[in-house]
């Protein structure tokens, strides 16, 4: 009876106009309000993949001085220090369960909350101000061409990697190995810096559900290393993570 009234008059503790948030009926907040269990039977186990250990284990004791300089100028060096090796499954599960996809907000017992740019910059120490860069996805061939131009890799070698990843992507391990080759063997420090930065953002603020790949389209943002600090990285992070 209460649920039928809610459809007509709005949800208690929820949206008044039910035509706006059409998926609220399936949200956990609605079930909590009526004192009901949302799932009957076995609950779906949440799969959480943390890439923090990958970052922490790969961060060297020190980068070559010129690479460290570019990292410092970009402001992305802080991402090396903000990754966690361990994550709390129950805490993250609670946040995921209470997130509303239509508003990108969390319905908590004390009210509604959302992640803001200020939160991102406080947690990750990234500057909010900057240019917002809208990028288009790239093909396997285009990704390989970017690797030739910006990472100093051979085209066929890079193309084999993108073919293995089945699209315009590089694996995090491949980027790390590219960094190591360029920094320690070839002394191509600009290419090494791009490979490291791309792997770094791909493991942190620009990660995706593959848990192992990095979208090659982000490599374009590192073409001019002296301009990396001009981008609004927190904005890109919010767009990617949402």
Key attributes of the depicted protein:
single chain, 242 residues, 11 helices, 5 strands, 45% helix
Short description:
The chain is mostly helical. Helix content is 45%, strand content 7%. Strands 1-2-3 form a 3-stranded antiparallel β-sheet.
SSE blueprint and pairings:
Elements lengths: L1 H8 L18 H6 L18 H7 L6 H10 L14 H9 L1 E2 L4 E4 L2 E4 L2 H8 L15 H12 L3 H10 L4 E3 H15 L2 H15 L9 E3 L17 H9 L1
Antiparallel strand pairs: 1-2, 2-3, 4-5
Helix pairs in contact: 4-10, 6-11, 7-8, 9-10
Walk me through the structure.
By secondary structure, this protein is mainly alpha-helical. It is built from 11 helices and 5 strands; from the N terminus they run H-H-H-H-H-E-E-E-H-H-H-E-H-H-E-H. Strands 1-2-3 form a 3-stranded antiparallel sheet. Strand 1 and strand 2 form a beta hairpin. Helix 6 (117-124) crosses helix 11. The mean pLDDT is 83.
Task: Characterize the largest beta sheet: strand count, sense, and whether it forms a barrel.
Answer: 3 strands, antiparallel
Number of helices: 11
Strand percent estimate? 5-15%
End-to-end C-alpha gap: 35 Å
What is the overall silhouette?
Answer: elongated
* Beta strand count: 5
Low-confidence stretches: none
Computed structural class:
mainly alpha
The protein's oligomeric status is: single chain
C-alpha Rg (nearest Å)? 22 Å
What is the mean predicted local confidence, pLDDT?
A: 83
* Helix-residue proportion: 40-55%
How do the helices and strands follow one another from N- to C-terminus?
Answer: HHHHHEEEHHHEHHEH
* Sequence of strands across the biggest β-sheet: 1-2-3
């Amino acid at each position: 009876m209460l649920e039928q009234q809610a459809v007509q008059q709005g949800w208690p503790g929820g949206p008044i106009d039910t035509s706006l948030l059409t998926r609220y009926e399936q949200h956990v907040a609605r079930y909590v309000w009526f004192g009901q269990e949302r799932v009957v039977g076995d609950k779906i186990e949440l799969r959480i993949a943390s890439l923090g250990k990958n970052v922490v284990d790969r961060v060297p004791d020190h980068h070559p001085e010129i690479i460290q300089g570019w990292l410092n100028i970009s402001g992305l060096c802080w991402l090396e220090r903000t990754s966690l090796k361990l994550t709390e499954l129950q805490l993250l599960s609670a946040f995921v369960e209470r997130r509303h996809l239509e508003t990108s907000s969390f319905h908590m017992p004390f009210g509604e909350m959302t992640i803001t740019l200020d939160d991102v910059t406080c947690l990750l120490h990234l500057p909010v101000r900057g240019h917002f860069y809208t990028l288009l996805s790239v093909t396997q061939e285009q990704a390989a061409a970017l690797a030739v131009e910006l990472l100093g890799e051979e085209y066929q070698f890079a193309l084999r990697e993108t073919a293995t990843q089945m699209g315009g992507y590089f694996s995090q391990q491949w980027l790390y190995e590219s960094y190591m080759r360029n920094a320690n063997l070839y002394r191509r420090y600009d290419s090494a810096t791009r490979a490291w930065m791309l792997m770094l953002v791909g493991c942190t603020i620009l990660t995706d559900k593959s848990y192992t790949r990095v979208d090659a389209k982000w490599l374009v943002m590192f073409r001019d290393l002296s301009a990396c600090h001009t981008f609004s990285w927190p904005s890109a992070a919010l767009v990617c993570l949402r």
